[in-house]
Amino acid sequence: MPAPKKSAVRIRCYRQGFGDCFLLTFDTGKAQPCRVLIDCGLWPTGPAHTATMQKIAEDIVEQTGGKVSAKKKGVVDVLVVTHEHWDHLSGFNQARVIFEKLLTVRQVWLAWTERPKGKDSLADTLRKDYEKKKKAARRLQAALQALESSPGFSASNARALQQLDSLLGFFGAVGGKADPVGAMKFIREEWVGPTRSYYDPGQLPELPGVPGVRTYVLGPPRDEKKLRRESSEKHGALYELFFGLTEEDSLLAALGALDEDVARFRDVEEVGKPFDLAHRHPIDLAAAQPESALPAGLREDFTRRYGAPDNAWRRIDADWLNAGGALALRLDKGINNTSLVLAFELPDGRVLLFPGDAQLGNWESWHDPTLSWKSREPGGKDIVARDLLARTVFYKVGHHGSHNATAQDLGLELMTHPDLMAFVPISHQMALDNGWDRIPLKGLVKRLRERAKKRVWFATEYTKDGKDFRNPNIDKIDELTTTEKAALKKAVQVDPLWIDFNL
Amino acid sequence: MFLQKPALAGAPPFRRLSGYAFDPSLSTQLETAVVNHVVFPVRWEALAPTSGEAEPQGPGPVGEYVEVVDIDPPSQCLYAPVDLNDPHLLAQDGLAPSEGDPRFHQQMVYAVAMTTIEHFERALGRPVLWAEREPIKGDESVEEHERFVRRLRIYPHALREANAYYSPKKVALLFGYFPASASDAGGHFPGGMVFSCLSHDIIAHETTHALLDSMHRRFIEPNHPDVRAFHEAFADIVALFQHFSFPEVLRHQIARTRGDLRGRSLLGELAVQFGRAMGGHGALRSAIGEVDERTGKWTAIAPDPAAYQDTLEPHDRGALLVAAVFDAFLAIYESRTADLLRIATGGTGQLPAGNLHPDLVRRLAEEAAKAASHILAMCIRALDYCPPVEITFGEYLRALITADADLVRDDHRGYRVAVIEAFRRRGLYPRDVRTVSEGSLRWPPALQLSDDAQQAVQEIGNWLRGLMPELRYAQDRCELFELMREKRIQLHEKIRSSWKSVPQLEALTGLVFRRPEKPLPGLRYDKDGIPRFQVASLAAIERVGPDGDVINQVLLTLIQTRDLRTTEGERMKFRGGCTLLIDLDTQRVRYAIVKPITGPAAERRLERQRRFLEDGDGVSLAAAYFGTQADDEEPFAMLHRGHEH
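Structure tokens for the assembled complex are given below, as produced in the milestone run.
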């Protein structure tokens, strides 16, 4: 394909590290291009990172027609926020002042899962479920932290706590600097100016000024599995409160933190307890002599079989708290799956794919037989996800390159366009700092490089311990012809703060 | 059966204990309620202290093999232990099934765990010894003599979540309870409490994890996608085939399915209540079919050889092995009952519409029970013929075939053919055999030894012969454990001192007993510069087959370890190992089942293992963040928790 004279779009990928921020500038043929900002976040917090995000915010202002020194506002036509995780949102917190004062945002696009309360019952149900899980996870985290210095704190407790600590960071630590909920609130409610729209898969929202560019909404799915909560929707909220005790409720009850609306209908003492009072013999495992309140026969039995120092290695006092690790993982996956997934189709048919942090379930749903879009030409064949993947030339790698956020057979293997390029929004060092040594996953990077003829870029490079996450040396890509190399060199501009892809 | 103190005159063979054949949910449905309440005939034991016992039996129940401790930390309370010797309970098969009485829960876990243990002892012909207590790193206070763990601990109410697991560190089973999801009101009411410790399948599954771990400690190390999957599959297989030991259930289900066990029946499903309570349409797992998420319809799964290549999540991958074994069982059942059906139908084999004759149902049920118990015993016995490290499905197939062929020379019922066919159809066979047939799948006889090597083996054989009476007449499991421990140490010394001078023994075992000429990275050496190795197990195998064939062998396994790093610089252990089956009559090595520690095959395996450790299981988010070795301490906790639901 001959390189177009003027590129149809410039994709600026910011290089803050473990986090997403992309500025897309579409050519409208007129003086004023169409600007789309997708996410603005960075995983770690701290003054240096705040400064980075502010620098990026200022660059966004400058790149969208504003001037920071003259207090002239830039203009973003569409701000896309994929999902409520800190590494996609932090900038709206850390650089909120810059955005508020120096940027006009006309429209905000969000996933259907972000619809305001009362507008979408499935969104409400999901949100409530996540809130409860989040609360339970936080309580478990606190309970484990309280145990940390006691002798009963086991290696598996430590493991669960580590999982909670690292994963709850996506939602912001309690009392810490990260506050994705606040950042999301800013975007959904507080930022004065933009209109907000919420999208379901199958829709085709319009980018202003670029009728030749089509935007496809692929996800998040309105998941049937989650829709199976219909019984509670059918019967209304009261029914749910009456019957709908969940695993999290029973955990929260054990931690003395039952939700008020759940408590309203119940005897708080009894929630989560598996047996009647008559069977229960209270003990306080944290007390010096937990057995003191027991009747004589039981006391002796408890002391001999459970309490004796000889048997300490088999105690299970705190094992139940480890449920928190799995809970945090489920929660993380759930929120990742609410990612708004967009595919931008350029006038010549090439596609840019931005899946947020969509996990496998979200990817699989794109291939649902009911999901298709009308062709541009009247009477043309309907377009399905497979077509879009086959024409993808720019892939924003999902979830910073973790394995389960890039589907193999239903994703990467279908990206067959000869010009495919990919960008991984990752700093492996930042992932390592958090104990995640598989983000990005080596195997995935390898396959990406094969598919994209080595044209894979990283926000931050990393080479150590047999890992090679380096950006390509275009001259050394044997798969490309001399002309292609020259074109690619022109198309890709690299700066310490960003990498531009001109397509 | 084994090592019991001389029984009182007239002690009954069994203690009859009521329980659920499946789980409480089936008692709330009219159709299944009648058969769901069963009585477990549990091998009799005193459950009361006898004089001079250091670790007395008693209420709990506390028996010889298991001990129920009913403490509920999230509820900050404990529940009084059941005394199964109460005359009222003795006279009426224990407590009647009840979800609301913790003492029945204690009885249920005890009954099912003991039933599972009994199946193992019967198949293996030797007493079960739990995995030993591991010394704590840096804490020398765990003395040698404290390694013996007499009883598997069972905590029926340990967790508040939809989970249950075996803890190798604590040698304990932990069961959880949780409110059922609001979505599917079938079998329970939404928000009603679901107890994993009331599910026969879950108890049997977890107990089997503990039993398997007691025989093969290294099978919990995830160094090949098959290893964890094997643990899960094996636990499911045992739970499934135990369904067939309840005659009422069997007859009921055979009548309902008109003898066709290939359709959906309770017999082929696992953890029905658990699966539904977590919001699913049906059982947690099903041996041969699946329920469509949208329509709720059950369909049989066609065998797909490609699934073995790309199914990596341990439960899903394990399901392939479960399906293969269950399929083999169905083929055997069908061939065993073909004549009955012909007799019943005047030779056509075509059953008329309507209900089956009760006599036919009873006869079909008998055949199903017999075939199921044979298959279960075959599966358990095969464990003695597995390599001690990195088990793969293909090797397990070889173990199954070899173990059975050794014991039952004449396969006129076609069991082995059925097994081979079912595995082959799912692509589960070793890649290094030329044909998939009985002859080539049997482990090859150990290589012909030269005189000096045979001499060394014979020395050990002689010594082992002398050992047999001691083992046979040990009075107590603790004594047996200590004896075995001592003998393993002696055997280690014998091998260490004499095998280093016989090069052929290295070829036989795939291990190294002297410092290799070319240095072998990561190999551990003792202070004398001799490569370290471990005698992981030692057991006598004495069995009599149905045709009177006698097996008189000693099983010993050796394991060697190299400390290496992955290409990403993480520590990894690469193990080689060898299972030696020595015939005590001829004093020859009958089989040497080898995973070499050195040589080209070992290097290839190492390469594979490195790749696997780096890429993870490719499925779970936990692996994406934290890797496959996520939790060394509680390997089953997260696996059972994190399973997608």
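Residues 314-344 of chain B form the longest helix (31 residues). Chain B touches chain A through 80 residues (CB under 8 Å). Further analysis is deferred to the final report.
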